[in-house]
Design a protein that fits this description.
With 528 residues, the chain is α/β, with parallel strands linked by helices. It contains ten helices and 26 strands. The radius of gyration is 23 Å and the shape is globular.
Amino acid sequence: MIMLKKSIFASSLLAVTAATLMNAAPGAYAANEVSITIDAKKAGPVINKNIYGQFAEHLGTGVYEGMWVGPESPIPNTKGWRNDVIGALKNMHVPLVRWPGGCFADEYHWRDGIGARDKRPVKMNTNWGNVEENNAVGTHEFFDLVDLLGADAYVNGNLGSGTPQEMAEWVEYLTGDGKSSLAELRRKNGRDKPFKVAFFGIGNEAWGCGGNMTVQHYTSLYNQYASFLKAPKDYMPQFIASGGHDDDTTWTDHLTKHIHEQWNMRFDGISFHYYTVPTGVWEKKGLALGFPEEQWISTLKNTLRMDSLIKNNVAKMDKNDPKKKIAFNVDEWGTWYDVEPGTNPGFLYQQNSLRDALVAALNFNIFHAHAERVRMTNIAQMVNVLQAMILTEKDKMLLTPTYHAFEMYVPFQNATSLPLTIKNNRKYSLGATSIPSISASAARALDGKLYLSLVNTDPNQAVDITIDVAGEKVAGLKGRVLTANAMDAHNTFADPQAVTPVAFNALASGGKVSVKVPAKSVVVVAAE
């Protein structure tokens, strides 16, 4: 657990925030203000903790340098993993980590990453920068990481350049509890008991970097590979099929019709990938910092597409899998900008601003709304890559606004969703583009409290909201808000706490709570 100091971040803003946010005066707002009603007595689906999953691919400095420094490093570490990074990740209660890719997974051969590290083969990471991959982080090191975090493991197998035998032998190496040669090899390498693998992915992006396959071809391969993936009952992973991306529902439809569960074969979920690109053009995505308001609203509008993308895929699943056995797992999502100038374009390093925190929170609220099917997601990625939680520079570390959004939403892990309605929701408009000003989600957390999240997408105007909790007496709301003066406000190594959450409180009057949610902000509060 790390201690996060309160910053003097934008002191003028905090002075205004204290005056306008705290203890909002009852009856101070117009009759047509936004109103939210929460039904505290009607329980919805549980919000699976794995919706807050993370992703650590062998890409740039996302694993090496960013997290793994090796046991001999002068940077304080445990079993080679940076203590500062581990402490920060534990503070945000990381529930699940996906590894080793991504595109890297379908060129990864697991035997290269076991045994003495100084004897492991050096390969080239042809997907990401064509740099040397020394395989210092392999199976045992990855499970050291998830053990240190107290997280579950999501291992992605190599279907693209591997074989059914190679994948089956990795599953046996991981999970075998008998005296087979593979289980004994694992013990020789330092792990007596089997590894607990929560999820095992059979390939990644088979439509693209995982093999450029048709869905028909991949489905046949899934049926073949999965037939040979066997594990003891107590160590059997959930198996995830490589699904579609963006607007394409073909993969979801075909997989749910044609993957056949038989014998020991499992089919537990479909993966789906969607990245938020400000311009919608991959060749010129847009800047992470210094962007105009046009790219603020386009980014948020594009990320809100996640709702319709999930709805369209779930409609196919509901038709083909009415018992809802199969999960829809968004195991790659987040913002993707042009890389930072002066950095290796293959390392996908980008700065992380307040805009990214809003993107994260908007997606959380969408995932909560679809919790019945969306049971796991993995933001891309954990450290130094794309929409990262943490940025490092040698022995320095900082927490990004996205990190703070994840940490603020921790109470929603395994919480029971509660239905809410939003009336008179304002529109935030710029030119011909409009999006809802307010996004919200409510849930009953494991601590018994009712939690509410609010996102104000408007970068210019605060929004007055009246909150009515039906079926429960509420004295007020208490929590935190994340906001800043600038749309691209971000943390740097010179000022690592420029954007951090601050206190947010409001008292009830007449059974309702009135709050003023500041422009461009994320709020998470508990009912008192």
